[in-house]
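Usage

Read records sequentially. Each one opens with the input sequence:
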Amino acid sequence: MRAPYWVYHPLMQGYHNPTPNRDPALRPQPEYNEGESPKFPAFSHLLMTPSQSLAKLPDEETKQRIGRAFFGSAFEQGGGLDAFEYYFNYYEEEIDWLQGGVTPETDQLAGLAAQTHDDLLIIANVLRKNADCKRSEIRAKVRESNGRNDREDWAFDRSIDITIRLWLQINIRDTLFRDTGKGVPDVQWDELQTLTEFLSSLFPVAEWELGAKERRLDPYFTGANMVEFCDLKIDWTTSLEDHLRLDRVKKVLWVFPYKRNLQALLSEADNGHGSPLPATVLKETIQTLDLLFPFWDERTKEFLRNEGQYFHEIGPFEQGRTLHLLDFAHWKDRLLEVYEEVYQSPPASWKQLRKDRRNPQQFWTFWIALVILGLTLVSTITGIVSMATGIVQMNTALEATRQQAQDQQRGQVNCRCPGFQRTG
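and closes with the structure output:
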């Protein structure tokens, strides 16, 4: 007897197809009354569509399902696949990375409970609906929805981790794969933490107070200015918790550039269908991008164009940049670190000094001193030239005088000689 084409998922109130090569005629009907909609409308498109294996990159149809499941109505309203192309480049890189194991120990796909892209979407729905549950409880719900009860706990844990990486872009990984995060520090979700507690712990709220002087940021505090004036290097991270991490030794600032994803998740949160990520984190992250990369700044436009980034063009934009650190509850610590350690650091070279306009007094003092130095050098050179000219003229005059004296002396000698006397 052939296996059924569809597997029923009780959390979805519908059917999921783990074996796309089966006969579609074997597909049963969803178990809900005629005229009713499934309890999870965002997943109704999965009921009639074959699933694609995680061993393959998602095709266009699968990407559409991923976009709608992860970002809801904001996916279509935000421009669909074309607008989210940058995100799907990341998605495909992660899938490629999963397939990169050369040994059983490094094969991240081996033994997973999630075998298809749609399996990940179902797990995302479980996470969304059970964010206040502990990891062990969520694992049990994922096991119930997955239908692969013969798999061990780690198979479900890794499937959950992959879903969080792809959906929320949090670099959560099994300790066995700690060195496979492409240089991004990884995090682990404790067994006794709820998903909400785990995500909140990654973005703590700073409780210390700032002085009046420290609260306000300089209007020139932009990423492009720090690259040009402060010798800063900006790299782009795919992990939200890695945003604004500063490597002081290498002077590298990591920035999370997926602004469209943040806006989509925030939009869904405002509609009551958002991700487990705190809405304040999503909003503040967007504000930090607008702060460091203002869309109207020409130097910023040129820098991002050279980097192949265009997130600064994605609106809507708030009225004016917020320059007060008190507006950033979650990112205040990291912003202050960048501001004090990088932006307020003195220029390290003459090249930086001559371009640096962060301190107008210092900038004009430098140029006035440079002009005075130039005038002094010109005056000195002119004096030296004049003195050299005087010396040359004096030597010329002395030589002429000496020559004249010699001529006179020679003439007197000639007059005394008898052979030169005239006869009468």
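Summary fields computed downstream for this record:
- The chain has three domains: 7-202, 212-355, 361-393.
- Residues 354 and 367 are 8 Å apart (CA to CA).
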